[in-house]
Amino acid sequence: MARANGGEDSIGLLEDVGLLDDRLIAAHFRVADEADIQRTAEAGAAVAYCPSVFCYWNPDRETQWTPVPNIRAAGAPVRLGIDDHYWHDSYSMFGEARQARIAANLERSAGQFDSMELLRMLTIEGARALGFDDEIGSIEGGKRADILLLDIDKPKFTPLTNVPAHIVNNAVPADVETVIVDGDIILRDSVPETMDSDDVRRRASQAVERFADETGWELHVGGGEPPSSIETVRDLPKRGPARLLTRLAIQSARDRFPF
């Protein structure tokens, strides 16, 4: 993408257009080398590591993974992210911490992350990546009261030892009993207090039905079938950034067949 837009490399392009600074959160950061990592850390930028969506594509051993330990060692904050949860049917940040640990075992070795490191990537490092670590991300005097309370009266949390491991290995969204944002309770006894959840579900279902009608997807309880390739190509201009996709396709052809 960088070469398709006139840049020598991704980091260089970001620097040229004034985006390589402490406001940047670089998603994935898969093919970064040591020089890229150093330049990113020196700029004060952060990285969002999204392990589940990457694992979904079943990469082989030759595919480079996000070098999380190197990035953190350079001083750049790394937060966990989901990317597009539709690809892997998950919206769980607890699950991302779990997947980060499993994925690290494939690329490097078992025990790459301890549970507290993963918990920090879910909390204070995530806040640091956003530039709000002086306001949120940990329970301290003077910070906003942004807190999740888990229902630990479940067999899977017994015995209650090594709490960080319980959170990143066992917890799921359904275990969240209370959510407090800036001191306001928005989820109490696992029931939302700031929205009509039934209405949200109804509107979401209507949106999916409209999507299916407008795109030609056939959706059912067992899965879904996309429209044919011919239909997709025919409707491409109205489905996304066709110009950008065309430039990327041309650059890919140039890289593969020099002329």
Please supply descriptive tags for the structure shown above.
Metal_Hydrolase, globular, alpha/beta, hydrolase, Amidohydro-rel, TIM Barrel, three-stranded parallel β-sheet
CATH class of the domain at 1-141: Alpha Beta
**Euclidean distance between termini CA atoms:** 19 Å
Bulk shape: globular
Radius of gyration: 21 Å
Give the name of the CATH architecture of the domain at 1-141.
Answer: Alpha-Beta Barrel
Major β-sheet profile? 4 strands, antiparallel
Number of helices: 11
Mean pLDDT: 85
Number of strands: 9
The CATH topology name of the domain at 1-141 reads TIM Barrel
Beta-strand fraction estimate? 5-15%
- In the predicted model, the low-confidence regions spanning at least 5 consecutive residues are none
Domain Amidohydrolase-related: 13-185
Organism: Natrinema versiforme JCM 10478
Keywords: Hydrolase
GO molecular function, one term: hydrolase activity, acting on carbon-nitrogen (but not peptide) bonds
Concise synopsis of the structure shown:
With 259 residues, the chain is an alpha/beta fold. It is built from eleven helices and nine strands.
